[in-house]
Amino acid sequence: MTHSHTLPYRIGFGEDAHRLSGGRPLILGGVPIPNAEKGAVAHSDGDAVLHALADALLSGLALGDIGQYFPDTDAAHKGLDSAVIVARALELVRERGYVPANVALVVTLDRPKLGPLRAAIAQNVALLLGLPESEVGVSFKTSEGLAPEHVQTRVTLLLVRSA
Ligand code: C5P
Ligand code: MG
């Protein structure tokens, strides 16, 4: 597929969910959640924030999704640090002359409360994208008990043409 990207701005959107199970770490936005009773069941590190972020970067330029670049059937990707996935997606975006300008993300998780980790998650996502922390909005929601064994993240972002 030939891509011709000329718009000055492009919106990206990504989503990811994982089942939660006891005895596993929960990592969100690269931040280990210290008091989580359950963690993500996943082939990689199960970081739903970084997976959704990588998909948002790719979707902004219609570059497909992370499954095409990091298939979960590939043994080489077992336990993969999701920061590597984000770095690759960011590289693909930059190669096409765009950079992220701001990001908004929502994590839906019943327990534990994530409010105390808001700044840590925003800082780490900002670092991965080369943005100031002020450009990363982080929101948390419960599922109101509808999905207690589930973590879900949605990410939208703005890409700006830089070259
Ligand atoms: O989903 P709900 O509106 O009931 O969430 C209420 C508030 O609880 C949210 O606005 C958010 O600040 C906080 N929250 C949290 N950690 C979660 C879920 C929600 O800090 N895992
Ligand atoms: Mg995932």
Q: Which descriptors would you attach to this protein?
A:
globular; two-stranded antiparallel sheet; 163 residues; 26% helix; binds cytidine-5'-monophosphate; five-stranded mixed β-sheet
Q: Could you explain how this protein is built, in words?
A:
- The protein has helices at residues 48-60, 66-69, 82-95, 118-129, and strands at residues 9-22, 27-28, 31-32, 38-40, 98-108, 136-141, 150-161.
- It is α+β, with helices and mostly antiparallel strands.
- It has a five-stranded mixed beta sheet.
- Helix 1 (48-60) runs parallel beside helix 3.
- The chain starts with 8 loop residues before the first strand and ends with a strand.
- The chain binds cytidine-5'-monophosphate and magnesium ion.
- The site of cytidine-5'-monophosphate has 7 residues, from strand 6.
Mean pLDDT: 95
So how many helices?
A: 4
Unreliable sequence segments: none
Bound molecules: cytidine-5'-monophosphate, magnesium ion
Helix and strand topology:
Elements: E1 9-22, E2 27-28, E3 31-32, E4 38-40, H1 48-60, H2 66-69, H3 82-95, E5 98-108, H4 118-129, E6 136-141, E7 150-161
Parallel strand pairs: 5-6
Antiparallel strand pairs: 1-4, 1-7, 2-3, 5-7
Helix pairs in contact: 1-3
In short:
The chain has helices at residues 48-60, 66-69, 82-95, 118-129, and strands at residues 9-22, 27-28, 31-32, 38-40, 98-108, 136-141, 150-161. With 163 residues, it is of the alpha+beta class.
